[in-house]
Write the structure tokens for this entry.
Amino acid sequence: MERVLEQKFTIEYQYNVFFTKGLFSLGNNLFKNFLTVHSNPGFKQKILFVIDEGFMDAHPNLAEQIRNYFMESEDFILASEPLVIPGGEICKNDPTCLDNIIQAVDQYGIDRHSYIVGIGGGAILDLVGFAATISHRGIKHIRIPTTVLSQNDSGVGVKNSVNFKGKKNFLGTFAPPKAVFNDFEFLETLDERSWIAGVSEAIKVALIKDLSFYEWIENNAEKIKERNSSEMEDLIFRCADKHLEHIRNGDPFELGSSRPLDFGHWSAHKLEQMTDFEVLHGEAVSIGISIDVLYSYLIGNITREEAFRVVELMNKLGLPIYHPILDTEEARFILLSGLLDFQEHLGGKLTIVLLEKLGVGKDYHHLDYLLVLKTLDLLKNFCQDQNPVYEAS
Amino acid sequence: MERVLEQKFTIEYQYNVFFTKGLFSLGNNLFKNFLTVHSNPGFKQKILFVIDEGFMDAHPNLAEQIRNYFMESEDFILASEPLVIPGGEICKNDPTCLDNIIQAVDQYGIDRHSYIVGIGGGAILDLVGFAATISHRGIKHIRIPTTVLSQNDSGVGVKNSVNFKGKKNFLGTFAPPKAVFNDFEFLETLDERSWIAGVSEAIKVALIKDLSFYEWIENNAEKIKERNSSEMEDLIFRCADKHLEHIRNGDPFELGSSRPLDFGHWSAHKLEQMTDFEVLHGEAVSIGISIDVLYSYLIGNITREEAFRVVELMNKLGLPIYHPILDTEEARFILLSGLLDFQEHLGGKLTIVLLEKLGVGKDYHHLDYLLVLKTLDLLKNFCQDQNPVYEAS
Ligand SMILES: NC(=O)c1ccc[n+]([C@@H]2O[C@H](COP(=O)([O-])OP(=O)(O)OC[C@H]3O[C@@H](n4cnc5c(N)ncnc54)[C@H](O)[C@@H]3O)[C@@H](O)[C@H]2O)c1
Ligand SMILES: NC(=O)c1ccc[n+]([C@@H]2O[C@H](COP(=O)([O-])OP(=O)(O)OC[C@H]3O[C@@H](n4cnc5c(N)ncnc54)[C@H](O)[C@@H]3O)[C@@H](O)[C@H]2O)c1
Ligand SMILES: [Zn+2]
Ligand SMILES: [Zn+2]
């Protein structure tokens, strides 16, 4: 005798991405108001801040500012002094960083009605999100991204992760934050490389989804390079918007194989690993986009002019489009193995997005190794002709 | 200038709980059919089995049976020999068990289109579910529960977890399985204690939600105690059904504070810890229910007769209703601290479900310590009068 019980339910996810300046200055009530709206009357909710050490060093008054900001709060208390954790890939590689956050959850009695707030680059946010979503089966987390990349891409999405024995993002969860606060002033202390690196994610999303956004980036490239330009603010806003739109209309928790937002990423992930993360994520994506754009030209989807128009844009912005590590044959084989890793992480059929035309992405299930190698030669030649910023630095 | 982007989407979760016998016998196509329906044409999906060592010892032919079962499968391949992991709480306590599963995911290239299948008691299923849901941000997992408790309660739900430094279920996820297969024959090798322990979860759900189910259990208590009775099959089916119904109509991922399915559990969790898990989960729940039922009597919600009717039922089934470790004052204080742990894990206000009347639960936000102590005295006296099974063993 066989019987079956059927189970079915839906869960609704909702969060806002706020754009502001001076988030923790006393006159700015955005963050406080958010917390108050979500407070639990008669019960003081705890907040644990976890802060990127690199960001903290550049903003030495931050801890005090936060303390003052919460001084007179009725509904919330700081669980402890902020936990300061080394920023960058190291915090996703070193299991003690994850452990330290989980320990703090235990030590300070952070519960499912408390908040863990991550402040920092994409790496810290990935780590804090993961720690929060697995502690007590999910503590609410808030993201405060402090890099261009995390404000316009990684910080506004639903993915959390750490590396496992060097394997990038091997462990993680899909779990949206409760809110994201983007403070444009936090970006002032970024060095030139990080400032510009995040722009490649905007080019990425524009190329596969929005030709007019792409053209806007081209037309404003000079101004975007400038620090504190309102064009950079607009770029971050539009890019974040495109990412959010894609997530909600697509496949938020990536149950299928198609991941258009990973345009340019199959080689980028590999390149980060190969250079021991000396190449920044956004820089690797810039090279990855260059490869995939040229590949799209080589298979006849776009013209040579269109392909090099994209490469030129990246070059003009100061983004790298090639890396000398790719000069050797061995390195090129390792790069190609990124296609296999990509398939494995996604599972199922290999699915790579390429350009159908400028502004429109399209899934492909096979890449020709020889054509990929050819894109590398084209990019290398381009660099030799142009003597681009990256190789000169 | 402040701007905001709003994000909102829903995710639908769906899975079936199948009841069968001889799941891996060659004539039984239930499991194969499930996999085929969910297969990816032209692509061989991998399956990794993780099996409870205690269950494996009792079913020494299982690995071979599974090998034969998949021998001629077109769409699926076994990723490797089954991973065998010690069953019981040890596998949730020892981080190397989690690590071994994650290592296997890496080593055998288990991807998001593969399946990890856990076979075993609630502890193994909690562990395997957790490992699967954090690997590659979520590999599909299938549960094959092999204890009464896991077939009627833990295995059919949406929670996964491991312990962290001895803290029960400190790390975990809410992530439903893709399917659950309950094979009644797998229960044949359970010892007497485990066989009956899981019945307390049925009494729990009946007491708070379904008086007629409770009365059915009373009327069939003798037969339920018997091995391989069809009454036990019915009890498991009805109990699983009630749990599934509660999950889908309630708050599947427990975003609020109310957790009626945790009736009797605040003290049970503590008691398991205090006895170093010598007391089984179901046994601890039986004691926990006894405490909360007497408490419901002491605050006037049910009569003394009703309260002791429940205690008698448990006693008659051979379930413990008290534990001698609770004789000392120190131990009683530790037990009471379970209320604080419970609040912390849930977060926010303490919320404990008690009986409003038989068959109906009700949330309370405060428990009177002295009244809890009184329930312990009443239960101890009851045991001394009755010389119940538990103390005699
Ligand atoms: N979750 C996702 O969807 C997603 C998407 C893309 C990338 N990522 C991840 O994001 C990470 C990269 O993030 P990132 O590019 O933001 O860099 P990062 O987090 O690696 O930080 C780079 C460095 O900048 C420092 N820093 C951060 N903010 C600063 C500031 N305002 N001023 C001065 N220094 C500052 C950090 O301390 C660190 O040393 C990678 O781990 C990548 O995998 C995640
Ligand atoms: N996820 C949830 O919602 C949830 C709910 C309740 C309980 N739980 C968890 O479930 C666990 C308890 O599970 P359990 O009671 O199923 O026991 P268990 O998993 O602890 O297993 C008990 C013992 O029985 C052995 N065993 C399992 N099946 C057997 C069989 N058929 N024949 C012989 N031996 C067998 C195991 O090897 C183990 O030694 C606890 O960790 C508890 O926290 C989880
Ligand atoms: Zn990226
Ligand atoms: Zn239970």
Notes: The two ends of chain B are 73 Å apart (CA to CA). Chain B has two domains: 16-189, 256-386. Residues 389-393 of chain B have pLDDT under 50 and may be disordered.
